[in-house]
Amino acid sequence: FFSNGDMPTPVLQSETLDFCTPRHFSCVECNLWRCKTPDVVNLPFLKTLKLRTIVCLSQELPTRALRTFMEQNDITFIHLGYKLWQADVTWRPFCEELFKEGLEIMLRASNYPILVFCSTGVHLTGTLVGLLRKSQKWCLNAVLEEYRVFDERSNDSSNNGSAHQSLQFVEDFDMDLVSFDLSQSPEWYQLASETLVGEEQLFEVQPEPEKLLQYERYYWPSTKYPLVSEKCKYTKESLIDEDDD
Fold first, then answer.
1. How many CB atoms lie within 10 A of CB 13?
2. Catalytic site includes residue 27
3. 59-to-76, 82, 93, 108 alpha-carbon distances in Å
4. Among the options 27, 118, 139, 232, which is catalytic?
5. Over the stretch 39-64, which tens digit does the pLDDT of each residue have?
6. pTM value?
7. How far is CA 101 from CA 27, 109, 117, 173, in A?
8. What are the distances in angstroms from CA 93 to CA 81, 182, 198?
9. At 107, is the pLDDT very low, low, confident or very high (cuts 50, 70, 90)?
């Protein structure tokens, strides 16, 4: 028996649902999140994010509960996986168009807040995030480490080797394929880009000065530099006549 002071506080089911995050849920950047395909129990939590856009990278159709949730909360659903997925018989396991469009969506501020997910929350989502990091000038080792954090959590044997494939794809992907307006990108991306430009200018290698021979340092090449500034004005006539040698 418990006294009134020792009685434990009952936990209601509705309270636990509010804090049930999707598997592999994480914040990538400000108002940009990633996760595995959300379940019904995750929807109350997703509502607190006040999402404007949800991007699905897998070809599977969303559940009825998720579709209803997006309709009720006026969320734009972009099903890139269903739109662009195709069986690839080549050595490349990825569709470049899928990630190109995914990056362009993520680099448009009008789409925020955004949630990106795939069926595992690791393979496709991790590759897209890796490409975002590449555009942010992350080194490949850092991209791989971030990918492995979610890959190790999945405990899915079917993902063996996916980290190497994803990193290879990220390394080979041509970022020039992605078209976006920097002025229309999220504020955090603009600030990061300005910082990178400043650092590049700071550490820019300056060209070596032209090497001159010792006697050339004291020689004034009249053909290259004027002896008198153009701003100089003379009011008195010269003491030397033009006819004088």
1. 7
2. no
3. 17, 4, 14, 23
4. 118
5. 999 999 999 999 999 999 998 899 99
6. 0.71
7. 20, 14, 14, 13
8. 13, 30, 37
9. very high
